[in-house]
Specification:
Length: about 325
Amino acid sequence: MRIEIKHRVTRAGLYEGEHETVREVLLAGIAGGADLGGADLGGADLGGADLRDADLRDAYLRGADLGGADLGGAYLRDADLGGAYLGGAYLRGAYLRDANLRDADLRDAYLGGAYLGGADLGGAYLRDAYLGGANLRDADLRDAYLGGANLRDARNVPASIAAVPPVREPETHEQWRARREAERKDPLLRVRRNRERALEYRASHPEVPVIEQLSQKMLASVTSAPESFDTGSWHGQTACGTTHCRAGYSVHLAGDAGYALEQSLGGTERAGRAIYLASEGFVPHFFGANGPALEDIRRRAEESAAYEASLAGEQS
């Protein structure tokens, strides 16, 4: 299949190739030295991609999945990463001057030494993120969540931000990669780690409803009524009835408490993020097509069930 990456504004072609996914085209373009400045990569699935030192200045990455991606030293000046998922991403030394990171999910991201001068981090979720040595000159951190974030030796921290002592020491790059590899080989290690984080989150956010076995319950609901799942809107109406995206479904499954939380937090994405954190200790990618989202829900449900079975085996 021939896929073309276009400029976000001019729509001129920047790079194209015979590949199955945008990820493969992007990596081929980077390897080939293509100029990808201003590339339209909105909503792209780039989770875990090796994008070290990539030049993606002015790129459109709104809503993209960059969870666990290696963006060490990447040049992302003026890039639009609004609402992107960067959970666990490695951004050491990345250049993010004037980048848009509004409402981006950067939980557990490594931003040591990154340049964030003038970046818009309004509403960004930075729980447990490492910002040691990062430059935050003129960065906008209004409404950003920094619980457990490590700002040790960060420069030009806005006076309005009260530094919170880190809950744990940050990982080195080697430790980060080793953990990622171990979790890739044994997903139950990741499930256990997420369950521990869910307990931490519940302790500090008792107002958030908890849905035990959230992934399994969501999979069962979507399987029994496929027409009810639509990533195109938080909550929608069709001839077949009410539809929900992944965040919307978590709110719906939480019942009245979920809808009350949605109203109090001022949005479905924020409520869905909180419910997922309290229930399973992670935040999924809320954007993209139905197919990949359903596949991830299925995988998470299977891993969760396997983890619970392993616990039962240990207790017997």
